[in-house]
Each structure stands twice: as structure tokens, then as C-alpha cells.
Amino acid sequence: MKKLYMVAALAATLTVGTLQVAAAQSASPTGVKNVVLVHGAFADGSGWAAVAKILEKDGYTVSIAQPPETSYAEDVKYAKAAVDAMDGPVILVGHSYGGSIITEAGNDPKVSGLVYIAAFAPDVGESAATIEQAMPQASTAFKSDSNGNWWIDPAHFAADFAADVPPAVSHLMAQSQVPISTDSFTAKITTPAWKTKPSWYMVATNDRSINPDNERRMAKRANATTVEVKASHVAYMSKPKETAKLIEEAATSASSK
Fold this sequence. Notes:
Elements: H1 2-26, E1 34-38, H2 49-57, E2 61-65, H3 72-84, E3 90-95, H4 97-105, E4 111-117, H5 128-134, E5 142-144, E6 149-152, H6 154-161, H7 167-175, E7 180-181, H8 182-186, E8 199-204, H9 212-221, E9 225-229, H10 235-238, H11 240-253
Parallel strand pairs: 1-2, 1-3, 3-4, 4-8, 8-9
Antiparallel strand pairs: 5-6, 6-7
């Protein structure tokens, strides 16, 4: 009888524990629950894998947009399509050139807040190109081809773009880089969403693709809540926990109405 009682008690304990874990796993985050991630130049959406995994684990619904980098209008269209497909308010996140994309796409009424990860946050009449010209980056490895596309010299890709990810990863990124069109890089912003939407910004202090002081300048004028991490340009890949934390802070703080 005593043995049966102990088995029953153990079963009850396990059941309660299982229910508690299930409840924790199904708990919804407060604030905005949808996140759209937008990659930058020379990359695709796969780099967001670690960040997306953390956000999903924490209860967020994540979409990774895949702008083709063929023209600025097309890239904005792809980002807006990802936003529009979400059921409810959205936190829109952009890395690098993806920041230029979300600066216009963020005017969508469903966007509650913007998060810039080592990204361009242009003002009216600015482009990613003019921002780079105003305060040049350390890298000189960006090259154009006869088709009007821009690439990073593979020999300098790791050092100038992804210095703090495993060498095998940066090597594959160099091999599979997505070139950015001149139009995408030089198109001028008309209506910066950061003027009307709350913003957050992550400065990558070891960035060689965008001057870190340029990042600080853009974050300041956007009145963005700003954090700094010791990272290369691909801070979202080398610092996924810190990136996800900033995104979740934005989701919790931004209005979900």
C-alpha cells in the first residue's frame, strides 16, 4: 500500500511539473508578438537563424524577409509583404542595408517599432551610399562589376564583414554572397519611419563596413534606445543573444495598438 501511495505521489508530481513546463512554453510575450527580420547587403535571411530561434523560444512569431537586393523599391516591397502577412502589430528589424529598407517599409501602419542592428538609418534625401561617403568605413574591399552590382572581395570578406564568426561560416558567406545593385545602395529615402516610430539601435564597435561613429550618429538623431556590443558588422550573427534581447525590449516597450 505504501509503495502504491509513493507511485501515485510521484505521478502527481510529474504531472504538475509537466503542466508547469507546458504553461511556460505556451506563455505569450507581452507587448508586440510579431517580429520581421530583414537582412542587409551581401547576405540572405539565413544569417538570422540563431536570433529567430531565440525569439521563437520566447514566444514570438518570426518572419525572415528575403529582399533580392535588385532595386530599392523591390527590396522595400519584399519587407512590406512580410509585415502585411503578419497577424497584428510588428517589430521590424534591419541589419546593415536592411536598415535603409525598414526606414521606408516601417511606415506601414502595422509596424510598432524599428530595430537597427549595425544598420543604415537614413534621413530624407540620404541613401546608404551618401552615409558611407560622409563618414567612410574602414573597408576598401567593396567592388562593382559591369552589371551595376557591388560585391565584397572574397579575400577580405571575413576581416571586413564577419570577423567574429567561425572561419567556415565567413568562408561560406563569401562564397554565397548576394550582390547589391547600385540602385539599392543609392536610392534616396523620402519618408523616414524613425521620425514617427520608436527606434532601437545596436552599434557594433568593431564594424569595418559601417563606421561605428556613423552608427552612433544615426542612432542619436533617431532618438533610438542604443546599446553597444564588441562585434564585427554581422553583430546579429556573432551576438545573437544580445540582438534578441534588444528586439524583445523593443517588442515589450512599443505600443501594440
